[in-house]
Design brief:
Number of strands: 0
Distance between the termini: 69 Å
Shape: elongated
Order of helices and strands: HHH
Radius of gyration: 18 Å
Largest sheet: none
Helix content: 40-55%
Length: 79
Amino acid sequence: MADDVWTRDEAESPCVQVCVIHPETRLCTGCLRTIDEITAWSKMSSEARRAVMEELPARAPQLRQRRGGRARTRARREG
């Protein structure tokens, strides 16, 4: 017997439990949402959630850029 009481027609949360806010982009490195979107998620309409979900893939390249790695750290020490 199917339990339709728990079935909802809303976007699921994109949270992957990796909650780290990137200091430059201000996006969560796990789900790619902004702090404001994360905070408001439970109060957003289904349509608003879907709109955010559609934007997330386009945000991924913002976090793929390296910040310098070892070379940058070494340059700072020697600089």
